Give the backbone structure.
Amino acid sequence: MDSLGPPPRFDGTGFQRWKVLMEAHLQAKGLNIWRVTSEGMKGNSQQEKQHDVIAKCAILNSLGDNVFNRVFDCKNAKELWKTISENHEETKDVANKKYHVLIDKLHSFKQLDHENTETIYSRLNILVNEINSLDVKKIDDLKFIRKILHSLRRPEYDLVITILYEKEINILTPNQVLNKVIAHELRHEIKPRAPPSSPTHSALACKQIKKLKKMAIKGSSSEEEKEEECPNSSNDEKEPMDPNLYMQVKKMNKCL
């Protein structure tokens, strides 16, 4: 039994992540197995062929049907790896366009009211990894740290931001900065703000009740007019207001 477990699954989405995981998986099986995948076999010895078969088998076992059906007839591991990469890696033009879209997201990135430092770090890390996977222009650790600090809410984090800048953030790692900001949160009992309740639903409800109230008043006036037109009709013949309508009008009085 293979102690490494099954290879990482690839169904056609998340290619960059799969590529990194699959490379690590093949290297863990043996450096020669990764070599025949990335460089090709050196000669036709039985050992080289065995390395190639192991690599090809691992890659094919990782593929979903939609990907497998496009590449299963590749002759060796190197051709298989190259074909999958060509089918799923983005062209330079597409990568550049995607890069600019993601950079715009990075520029507008801010800590949300309901987020703590760990949450914002995780969200920013995903965005930066996505940018770096395009191989256009990398976001290094220093830029990552500056973005974290610039994105934190003010004034709760002003003190720790000032201290970190004074300690030369270019010698700190992102994890070190994260731990210092988390310590600041605990020391000063900074907690995520509760998300504000949306006024939209309440406003719509009040408008609807106002409308119902007008309808009720109008209905009541109509009944009075009918009574004046028919003086012989008794009070017992008047229809009472619908209970549901009455309750909504009652709620409206609280809303106003």
